[in-house]
Amino acid sequence: MAAIKITNDNFEAEVLRSDVPVLVDFWAPWCGPCQMLAPVIAQLAEDYEGTAKVGKINVDEEPQLAARFGIVSIPTVKVFRGGTLSGSLVGLRSKTELEALLH
Predict the structure, then answer these.
(1) Fewer CB within 10 Å, N side or C side of the chain?
(2) Do 56 and 5 meet the contact criterion of CB atoms below 8 Å apart?
(3) Rounded Cα gap, residues 95 and 26, in angstroms
(4) Residues 6+ apart with CB under 8 A from 98
(5) pLDDT band at residue 21, thresholds of 50, 70 and 90?
(6) What is the dihedral of CA 94, 102, 34, 57, to 10 degrees?
(7) With 0-12 CB in 10 A as exposed, 13-18 as middle and 19+ as buried, what is 88?
(8) What amino acid positions are annotated as catalytic residues?
(9) Is there a contact between 80 and 86 (Cβ–Cβ < 8 Å)?
(10) Cα–Cα separations (whole angstroms), residue 66 to 13, 50, 52, 85, 99
(11) For residues 31 and 74, what is the distance between their CA atoms, to the nearest angstrom?
């Protein structure tokens, strides 16, 4: 399964009301490190299908969500559990670091 495109319109349903953990990648198409992280995010979406959701928020298209979560540097990855923020990493990180955030 591919990463879900998360927007202001579907954020509550996909993230806050999810019954599984949700890893959210805040990114932009012009961001080099974001492009380098993209294959890792795609792999996590496959690896965790059924046990977690993986979503992407384009900060250029969804500035209100970026502001809501204080995104000042991208890529930023946040994990939500039961509608609550449970962890965050900023910058290009390894798959291992992102998996640790999910566990």
Answers:
(1) C
(2) yes
(3) 16
(4) 23, 40, 41, 44, 77, 89
(5) very high
(6) 180
(7) middle
(8) 31, 34
(9) yes
(10) 17, 27, 22, 14, 22
(11) 7
- Tell me if the pTM is above 0.90: yes
> What average pLDDT does range 8-24 have in this prediction?
97
Residue the block writes with tokens 């509608």: 83
Q: Could you write out the three-class secondary structure of the chain?
A: CCCEECCCCCHHHHHHCCCCCEEEEEECCCCHHHHHHHHHHHHHHHHCCCCCEEEEEECCCCHHHHHHCCCCCCCEEEEEECCEEEEEEECCCCHHHHHHHHC
Amino acid occupying residue 46: E
- Rounded to a whole number of angstroms, the distance between the first and last alpha carbons of the chain is 20
Q: Tokens in use for 98?
A: 């992102």
CA distance linking residue 23 with residue 21, whole number of Å: 7
Residue type, 68: R
State both tokens at 77: 């990855």
